[in-house]
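Quick question, first post here. What does this chain look like in 3D?
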Amino acid sequence: MKGTQKERIDRAQDRALECLEYILEVTPAPDFVEVVGCIGGDTVTCRVYDDGSVYER
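> Answer (accepted):
Ran it through. Tokens below.
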């Protein structure tokens, strides 16, 4: 998955919204995009890697 930084962030947000209700913060890193959001009243941090995999922290 190559592309501009904005495209990377947009893809990560779309992927994260599959399990989050809404997004609070997005922080790009070299290998992943960290997305902070809420689900069911809880704040969750996910890392969306460039290969599309998602891991909760």
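The first helix runs from residue 5 to 16.
The mean pLDDT is 92.
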